[in-house]
Fold this protein.
Amino acid sequence: MRILLVGKNGQVGWELQRALAPLGELLALGREETGDLATTDRLVARIRELAPQVIVNAAAYTAVDKAETEVEQAQRLNAELPAVLAREAAALDAWLVHYSTDYVFDGSGTQPWTEEAPTGPLSAYGRGKLAGEKAILASGVRALIFRTSWVYASRGHNFVRTVLRLAQERETLDIVADQVGAPTGADLLADVTALALHQVLQADAAGAALSGIYHLVAAGETSWHSIARFVLSEAERAGMQLRVSADKLGAIPSEAYPTPAPRPRNSRLVTSKLEQAFNVRMPPWQSGIQRMLHEILAK
Ligand SMILES: NC(=O)C1=CN([C@@H]2O[C@H](COP(=O)(O)OP(=O)(O)OC[C@H]3O[C@@H](n4cnc5c(N)ncnc54)[C@H](OP(=O)(O)O)[C@@H]3O)[C@@H](O)[C@H]2O)C=CC1
Ligand SMILES: Cc1cn([C@H]2C[C@H](O)[C@@H](COP(=O)(O)OP(=O)(O)O[C@H]3O[C@@H](C)C(=O)[C@@H](O)[C@H]3O)O2)c(=O)[nH]c1=O
Ligand SMILES: [Mg+2]
């Protein structure tokens, strides 16, 4: 089994290097090897040369606000790259594993979104990611598309690390409390990806029936404000010196924190399709955050 991982140095890519290694011969590529993936010639040549049975795409344009002005670059990474990977994987009769986002939804209502629920992205990032999903589905390739949300890891750019830094630097800190969803660890994402991939590969031809979109997020729901409060109280308990303590953290509505890209209010995702298809259970979001904090605070 030969697996080609693209985007090996991102939050998810890094964890995939660990989680996919036992499944076969893992070839992991980062920007050093592929160059800027706005142009895919080099990557395509590598894919054709290596002829993997699985391509895993962890590369994406994830700067949500910047995507509003760098629309072209974001579109290339989030829509065109997946289309090219789908075409190449289909030609090799390989599986494609890809990640998408809660930001494909408009965030209306309070009901959790199923995989079939109507999409309606509010941002250029969300529109690009949705176009990526659609290109993969239209190609006919066998694919696992995992829609996840609010990804964090002990390395890389993420909300948890930003909050810890701001609470050390600032006198006050206000965080939006009316956007609801679930923070999901890159480690959990990578581990569930490996479990699911193992099952579709073991199933041989029958595995094709498992091809499709799956929501993959930690269990429970919370707001960005509640996550931040949880993070700060855990950090304080561990003896970290903060200028903004957990009980001083401000809770604000989205209107009080204007950003170039609007974020969905309702990012709740139903995970039962994934849990039933692959016989897994999503752990509560708190456990992953606690574990990540232990890792960070030990340093
Ligand atoms: N982060 C999140 O909160 C969420 C992420 N997702 C999705 O999960 C997937 C993984 O995200 P995550 O690991 O957090 O993302 P990161 O931003 O941590 O990593 C993205 C990776 O893509 C690479 N990359 C970006 N632009 C280029 C480029 N022009 N050329 C070459 N490589 C490039 C980066 O390389 P380099 O390090 O060299 O820049 C990096 O390794 C993505 O599909 C994302 O849309 C879904 C929901 C939430
Ligand atoms: C830093 C900060 C953020 N916020 C708000 C803004 C936003 O609504 C929320 C989270 O901010 P961020 O900019 O970290 O989040 P954002 O970059 O929008 O995170 C998203 O990234 C992409 C890649 C995804 O796919 C999504 O699932 C989601 O994880 O917190 C505050 O209210 N106060 C603050 O001081
Ligand atoms: Mg961000």
